[in-house]
Amino acid sequence: MPIGLIALALGGFGIGLTEFVIMGLLPEVAADFSVSEATAGWLISGYALAVVVGALLLTAAVTRFERKPVLAVLLVLFIAGNLVSALAPDYSMMMIGRIIAALAHGAFFGIGAVVAADMVAPTKKAGAIAIMFTGLTAANVLGVPFGTMLGQAAGWRSTFWAITGIGVLALIGILTLVPKTGHGDTSPGSLRSELTAFRSGQVWLSILVTILGFGGMFGAFTYIAFTLTEVTGFAASTVPWLLILFGVGLFIGNTVGGKAADRNVDRTLLIVLSVLAVVLAAFALTATNQPLTIASIVLMGGFGFATVPGLQMRVMKYANNAPTLASGANIGAFNVGNALGAWLGGVTITAGLGYTSPIWAGAAITLLGLAVMAIAAANAKRRGAAGTTAEMTAPAAAEPVAAAR
Asked: What's the pLDDT at 188?
């Protein structure tokens, strides 16, 4: 395994911690700033939307620059955002800090995915992407639970100070472990060449699957602290330990999903999304049962994150030779899904439907993602079959030409 993948995973750990740790601390943050649960949830939705902006605009702005210094600069932006969050005197400033940090998120993972894939053989690209995203899963296995415990014990601001320190370590890792990468196309047409990826209908279908498929899981997860304490009856002090189990599911799902996607991307995504929808529905139905809730948390994390390597690889596959901006756009799509899920979950709670309603909303969104994925897979299979038929029925006169090549 190239050592540079470890550095990318370290950066993913810090960024993933910033994104997810707020879920376990949402009740404390809401109480400190005297805002409602739904309003506090916008610290998640706002972050996700800012990731989309950064994934598109920042990635587009840096396509012609060497990737290693770009990744370093993005981490500096991430560090600054967490400093602002740690020092925020009110809700508005906290939101500003979240947005600053989020701007680095999408571009880092989008560019990092391309760098990771370029480090390995073509048959191992999804696995390499999965290794980079292992940092994100490790953030959930270790960072989020212990970050939540730190925030509950010493105040939620202490968690953001810790994240700032992790960001500094990640920056050092990028500077010392990631190899120098080549420049992209430095001609004036480089951005135009990246934009050609969006001529592919499969790229757009893949992005839509990302929004819906990942958004379903995230919508259920956003208000998980309220579900566990208000519906299942767990004490608030047990939430960090339950989040560890969720993180274990993420880690396993990411690893297995990456290996499966290297064998067959479309089949993997169809199976995983189908099972995820079932798991979410079962979770909503059994949320009052503690043992079944524990099982649901692990399975939700596992099947939810098993989609990530395949979804990222599918976009890059159909983007062909212009993967950087498409990769960034798909990272943005993950976070559009995050925002959609968090917003819809907040709407259902505000409507008085209870703390299991975000899980039902997540199941519905996931089913929509499965339907789009089925259409995309059928379309790709049909076009592939058509291409094979065309080759088999090509005029025999073309054979000498092909042989000459």
From this structure: 33
